[in-house]
Amino acid sequence: LNRRLAEFGTTIFAEMSALATSTGAINLGQGFPDTDGPEEVREAAVRALRDGRGNQYPPGPGVPELRRAVAEHQRRFYGLSYDPDTEVLVTAGATEALAASLLGLVEPGDEVIALEPYYDSYAAGIAMAGGTRVPVTLRPDGERYRLDPDELRAAVTDRTRLILLNTPHNPTGTVLDRDELAMIAELACERDLLVVTDEVYEHLVYDGEHVPLATFADRFPGLRERVLTISSAGKTYNFTGWKVGWVTGAPELVSAVRTAKQYLTFVSAGPFQYAVAEALALPDRYYTELADRLRATRDLLSEGLREAGLTVYRPAGTYFVTADIRPLGESDGFAFCRELPDRCGVVAIPNAVFYDHREEGAHFVRFAFCKRPEVIREAGARLARLA
Ligand code: PMP
Ligand code: GLN
């Protein structure tokens, strides 16, 4: 393994899912739903396979049906307009979109700011691009995690190339509000930065609303040319295994990502692209029901964790709730998560893996609630043994 990747070994998600399998514990570690997405979308994939649509290399930028559906989705939900031919690119999940964005936009030695705790592939993507990561820490403040605008401003230097944003935010569940987003938009324009914004949890919001950074382009001239938005089908349609993602943004940015993407996978998921094009057009009711179901399991799990004695930060979005284990007299999230299957038959993720400043996250643990209510109820009963 080369020096750039030396620190990355095996992802925490693989490690913890293996622990769940070997111990038979309930897996609230890796974030994936335990029910598949809509029947009609699965049928659409079967039809595409059977009709020979996408079984051979699809077009490099993605099938036109899907690019048009992505553009239409951005218009329908956010009033954003993108040209499906030059401003939309289909990728192998958001993971490839992130890696290709960093590879296509960052020069070796450039600094990339990421909100810490950050999703693990950000650090690896920045490293592969030869960039230097600069974490800006989100800290608990009352019920939610907050971004300190002064810390973000202070983190920008002459070497800063881009800000890697994530809202709704994994693992804290924070949904950035309009003031925070406006501040970031202003900073990007003022300091001539790019912003890559990972919005894969855009439809998983339980309090308030998701606002894409790109919608601030009306107020901040120059922003449209600086913002690249990433999303994917995994979380919105319960198909994390399909790995269909996309980026939207100004042509120069999308074209940089396309160049990198061509030599990573070239193309992927042919038949699934057609199915996701149909999923994007599902009626509003689908999206409301999805959020309603997850809000209920969020509340169920939060209640269980509270009853077990942990301090819970209320996630406004995502699949995850972060809890503080110090009220249990514990301070090492790694040790806690390694022992949890034996102690009570549950698997969780130590948030420390998402930090450069490990001490900031040492005592936080992430639990996924994207599971059926009966599974969350059973996990709650098991966690009660900790109290
Ligand atoms: N970004 C964030 C914040 C995530 O939590 C995940 C994990 N699901 C991804 C990106 C990766 O998404 P995909 O499965 O579409 O590659
Ligand atoms: N995004 C998912 C999570 O945060 C995991 C995806 C993965 O296993 N790489 O749990």
UniProtKB/TrEMBL annotation:
Keywords: Amino-acid biosynthesis, Aminotransferase, Cytoplasm, Pyridoxal phosphate, Transferase
EC number: 2.6.1.17
Aminotransferase class I/classII large domain residues: 25-379
A single GO BP: amino acid biosynthetic process
Cofactor: pyridoxal 5'-phosphate
Keyword check for Nucleotidyltransferase: no
Molecular function as annotated in GO: kynurenine-oxoglutarate transaminase activity; pyridoxal phosphate binding; succinyldiaminopimelate transaminase activity
Family annotation (Pfam families): Aminotran_1_2
Record InterPro entries: Aminotransferase_I/II_large (IPR004839), Kynurenine-oxoglutarate_AT (IPR051326), PyrdxlP-dep_Trfase (IPR015424), PyrdxlP-dep_Trfase_major (IPR015421), PyrdxlP-dep_Trfase_small (IPR015422)
Cellular localisation: Cytoplasm
Functional note: Involved in the lysine biosynthetic pathways. It catalyzes the transfer of an amino group from L-glutamate to N-succinyl-2-l-amino-6-oxoheptanedioate (N-succinyl-2-l-amino-6-ketopimelate) in a PLP-dependent reaction, yielding as products N-succinyl-l-2,6-diaminoheptanedioate (N-succinyl-diaminopimelate) and 2-oxoglutarate.
Protein name: Probable N-succinyldiaminopimelate aminotransferase DapC
UniProt organism field: Streptomyces tardus
